[in-house]
Amino acid sequence: MITTEQVQEIADKIEKLGVDDSTVSTLRQDYQPIHFTYCMDDDLPNNNPVLAQEKFNLYLIDGRDHCLCLTTDYEVATGIVVAEIIPD
Questions:
Q1: pLDDT tens digits for range 31-40
Q2: Which are the contacts of 70, defined by CB distance < 8 A and separation ≥ 6?
Protein backbone atom coordinates (compact mmCIF):
# COMPACT_ATOMS: atom_id res chain seq x y z
CA MET A 1 0.00 0.00 0.00
CA ILE A 2 1.16 3.49 -0.87
CA THR A 3 -0.50 6.58 0.59
CA THR A 4 -1.43 9.84 -1.08
CA GLU A 5 0.82 11.56 1.46
CA GLN A 6 3.80 9.46 0.35
CA VAL A 7 3.11 10.26 -3.30
CA GLN A 8 3.00 13.99 -2.53
CA GLU A 9 6.20 13.75 -0.46
CA ILE A 10 7.91 11.89 -3.32
CA ALA A 11 6.72 14.50 -5.82
CA ASP A 12 8.10 17.27 -3.62
CA LYS A 13 11.46 15.50 -3.44
CA ILE A 14 11.55 15.08 -7.23
CA GLU A 15 10.76 18.78 -7.67
CA LYS A 16 13.69 19.62 -5.41
CA LEU A 17 16.21 17.11 -6.86
CA GLY A 18 15.14 17.08 -10.52
CA VAL A 19 13.87 14.27 -12.73
CA ASP A 20 16.66 11.81 -13.58
CA ASP A 21 18.14 8.39 -12.80
CA SER A 22 20.04 9.76 -9.81
CA THR A 23 16.85 11.02 -8.17
CA VAL A 24 15.10 7.70 -8.76
CA SER A 25 18.06 5.91 -7.13
CA THR A 26 17.70 8.21 -4.13
CA LEU A 27 13.96 7.46 -3.96
CA ARG A 28 14.67 3.71 -4.02
CA GLN A 29 16.91 4.11 -0.98
CA ASP A 30 14.65 6.51 0.92
CA TYR A 31 11.32 4.74 0.35
CA GLN A 32 12.06 1.03 0.65
CA PRO A 33 10.27 -1.31 -0.07
CA ILE A 34 8.44 0.77 -2.71
CA HIS A 35 9.58 -0.18 -6.23
CA PHE A 36 10.47 2.76 -8.50
CA THR A 37 10.68 2.83 -12.29
CA TYR A 38 11.83 5.76 -14.45
CA CYS A 39 10.71 6.37 -18.02
CA MET A 40 9.46 9.05 -20.38
CA ASP A 41 5.80 9.98 -20.03
CA ASP A 42 5.09 9.35 -23.70
CA ASP A 43 5.99 5.68 -23.03
CA LEU A 44 2.70 5.44 -21.10
CA PRO A 45 0.04 6.60 -23.58
CA ASN A 46 -3.62 6.51 -22.61
CA ASN A 47 -2.93 6.21 -18.88
CA ASN A 48 -3.91 8.59 -16.12
CA PRO A 49 -1.28 9.59 -13.57
CA VAL A 50 -2.18 9.75 -9.89
CA LEU A 51 -0.18 12.98 -9.68
CA ALA A 52 0.63 15.32 -12.57
CA GLN A 53 3.35 17.96 -12.48
CA GLU A 54 4.82 20.21 -15.14
CA LYS A 55 8.01 18.14 -15.59
CA PHE A 56 6.84 14.66 -14.60
CA ASN A 57 3.86 12.46 -13.81
CA LEU A 58 3.60 9.76 -11.17
CA TYR A 59 1.79 6.49 -11.83
CA LEU A 60 1.11 3.64 -9.40
CA ILE A 61 2.23 0.07 -10.06
CA ASP A 62 0.29 -3.01 -8.96
CA GLY A 63 2.70 -5.92 -8.57
CA ARG A 64 0.27 -8.54 -7.32
CA ASP A 65 0.04 -11.88 -9.08
CA HIS A 66 3.65 -11.59 -10.30
CA CYS A 67 2.64 -9.32 -13.16
CA LEU A 68 3.17 -5.55 -13.16
CA CYS A 69 0.42 -3.23 -14.32
CA LEU A 70 -0.59 0.37 -13.72
CA THR A 71 -3.32 1.12 -11.21
CA THR A 72 -4.99 4.07 -9.55
CA ASP A 73 -5.75 2.03 -6.44
CA TYR A 74 -3.46 3.13 -3.61
CA GLU A 75 -4.46 0.07 -1.53
CA VAL A 76 -2.87 -2.40 -3.98
CA ALA A 77 0.02 -0.24 -5.19
CA THR A 78 3.51 -1.63 -4.67
CA GLY A 79 5.50 0.83 -6.75
CA ILE A 80 5.65 4.15 -8.55
CA VAL A 81 6.58 5.08 -12.10
CA VAL A 82 8.35 8.43 -12.37
CA ALA A 83 7.55 9.52 -15.93
CA GLU A 84 9.50 12.51 -17.23
CA ILE A 85 7.69 14.93 -19.52
CA ILE A 86 9.78 16.21 -22.42
CA PRO A 87 8.56 19.64 -23.59
CA ASP A 88 7.52 19.89 -27.23
A1: 999 999 999 9
A2: 44, 47, 59, 60, 61, 62, 81
